[in-house]
Amino acid sequence: MENILSVLVFFPLVAAILGFLVGKKSIRVYGISVATIEFLLTLWLWFAFDNSNGGFQFIEYIPLVSEFGINYYLGVDGISLFIVIMAALMTLVGIIALNVKKDLKNMIITLLFLEVAMIGVFVSLDAIVFYLFWEFSLVPMLYIIGAWGGELRLYAAIKFFLYTFAGSLVMLVGMLYMAYVYHSVSGVWSFAITDWYALVLPLSIQKWLFWAFFLGFAIKVPMFPFHTWLPYAHGQAPTVGSVILAAVLLKMGSYGFVRFSLPMFPDASVAYITPVAIIAIIMIIYTAMVAYAQKDMKQVIAYSSISHMGVIVLGTFAMNAEGISGSIFQMLSHGIVSGALFLLVGVIYDRRHTKLMSEFGGLALVMPKYALIFGIMMMASVGLPLTIGFIGEYLSLAGFFKISPMLTLLAGTSIILGAIYMLSLYKRSFFGPVTNEANAKLPDLDSKELTALVPLVALVVWLGVYPKPVLGPIDNSVKALVTFMHEKAQTSEAKSVIVVSKRTKEAK
Amino acid sequence: MLQAVDISMASLNLITLSPMLVIVSGALLIMIIDLLKKDMDKSLFVMLSILVLFVDFGATLSLSINERGFFDLMLIDGISVLSQLLILLASMLFIPLALTQKRFHEYSYPEFFSLFLFMVAGFQFMVASDNLILIFVGLETASLALYTLIAMHNTPGSHEAAIKYFTMGAMAAGFFVMGSAAIYAVSGSVELFDVAKVLQQRMNEAGIVLPIIGGAVLLLVAIGFKVSLMPFHMWTPDVYEGASAPMAGYMSIVPKIAMMVVAVRVIGFYIDLGMESVRYMVIALAIVTMTLANIMALVQLDVKRMLAYSSISHAGFVMAALALDTTKAYSGIFLYYGLFLFTNLGAFAMLWISRHKKNRYHSRFHHPYEKFSGLISTSPMGAVIMAIFMLSLTGVPPFSLFWGKMYIISATVDAGYIWLAIIMALNSAIAAYYYLKLIVYMFLKPPVAGIEAVGVNSSRPLVVIVGIAAFVTTMSVFFMEPMLTYINYMVSVSGY
Known about the structure:
A: mainly alpha, globular, disordered C terminus, B: mainly alpha, 20 helices
């Protein structure tokens, strides 16, 4: 199946359109079936993927507007492969656990449209096609937050849309400028990312373009000080919205750094390591502190999300193989763990219609299964060894250690601070006696919730113990990327920073 | 003794006039029918108008490019053909909107349709000449017809709108004439290609720059009035509010395309002369227009007024391309208006579908935001289509205007005005807010109790027009390729 990527992108689209014709009663089954098929297709993609090849695979190329160099150009490598799989998995889990009563049909169709955009972003190799999916992903999310959200849903939805939209328009200008530079060098228009990779730019141009792309990605990640939309979006979004937002949509930004910023502007990226790292560290420490101060469970996880995204950014800008591999692995682990945590908060919200920690206490007595799963996910979030969270965080920080031990030390506080706020959340909600009468008779997880959560628990443990099947292909592509950046870099500073570490060189 | 003037038919090259001849005779035909037979249904006139426009479209398409005719008054170059095609396309989409469910005053007169055709002829003359006097005549023919068409809607608001538009239009016409006079004073000609030749030689003379700049300013003011650039936009929202929705939609497209072509010729001429100050004036006007219009649009209570300000802002956006003076930028203008035409006319047609005879929702406005509250539950299809138009106006891909925006911003970047490109991008982000506001009302707010269905004025022709507009807006990516090729070709053969 050569055109499996197109199938992956357009299958949910067709399914979403056909979904309008499906009866209201059967829509849940329809949604689960479609998402399952899509997930199986992504697994097939993994199966057919050549692990030893670090470059792009399953390439498809159809000219769209050849006058202007826009082509339908798809491909996948080790970096994007697992994010695609995770996007499909989290959509499936989200739909299984879906618990909205109102307009279930609209919700499922919207989720399928969102899946199209999410998969599309990660497999497109043409900047305009990338941008197309990138922007299109805003619309379903706007609807999900706005239609099923909490009290302030309209404000949150609009804020989410405007922030991202403004940032990405600046990024669009950057893309157009990049295409212009490419045109003036080579004489043809092209928006193909692989063509842009080949372009060696002078540092002065790189610096401008770096910031243009940075703004677009930083708002999406979201990096300090553009992070303020995220707590609102999470606070107001329905459970499934938060799951998808945290698990996949935020990754678009960090993926953008790896896919665009680093290989296209290696010198500028090296030159700006310090400011970016400082922003990332502020993000890690500041939001972790804010997370500790929250009263609402969901807000704690929302802020912890931002804090973890900081580690991902830091790992990416380590500019060496460990750091980047680690940050990509951390994207996956954060996707799974934070997705699961949001699902878990959703579970308790469905039962009690409140997320305030003060309302709970002693839940472990009433809901033991729930407490167990929450505990595992919490450990993974903190980054306990043998869980998925440890590997990514460790590699990211180890990668950045080569750049600056001091800053890494500061970033390392994220683990400590993370332990503080997560454990205090756990303590306040799950331990002690049952203080609130309303909690005394809460039912434990039902089969639907278990179906959604148990696979995630299994993944967290499996990949925590044995990450190689995933880390291997990622590492391959990342090494290819870093080697390429090393070749491309012009300044001696960049040459010395961008290195594939010794261990891996010997292995070669 | 006067010499006998010898004019051969060949030198007149009457074929260059054929599109206008077709449409003028069509207009006369409608008047004749009205004289001979009363009480004809409006559908007859609608269909006749479409047929005439269709023949006109064919005649325009068959013109050979880069010809002059009629004592060199007529200039058939690529952009004149292109803009005539756009004008005719918009007119063909506009006319069926007369076939509404409810009866409206203006459509009961056959004169409406013949005036409309005369107006189109006027616009065609405007774009098919580089003689300032013929441009002026075309402009006045079109404008006078347009004032009448607005007034024929026959509500107090429409009378006010027509008078306001008339006064402002008269003033703009005055500026245009004074600008032309200034040009004539320094060059002794009103034909831009002649003027350019004369001025090229006189550029070094002392004191010549002031009258040239003066002429440019006067002409820019006139253009600014017609294209509704800030600060000459004051009439726009009121006139759009007073006019019927399709008429407002039409006004946001066709007169602007026509005037934009004039602007291309006039400003292109100044920039070719090396008057950098004119370029900066245009850029300044463009920036002021898009930014302020966007801010004004944020606070509007009425969707129609919001769309009025939004179309001002779009005009500013396009105006920025005008200052760049590159082939790509000029192509961008036509691409943009070609796409804007469908989206904006579609949006106004949606307002028209929802139009009640009386104001039900607000003491002053026909289309306050509240009217569309919860449209998704009362009329899901309508809400989705309106949302598509709004998203397109916002510039969300894959909808049509994204491509236009992208192309113009790209042209701006290529010309080296990156700061301008960023201003344009940020303006698009500001604009997102007010388009989203309507989407939020339609999708996310509950319907207001006691309001009956919104699609009261709907009829099959209206639905077809909206359908066409929605189709083009959604599927634009698939015909971008031929469209761009054609536009690029037409613009580059004209020498721009």
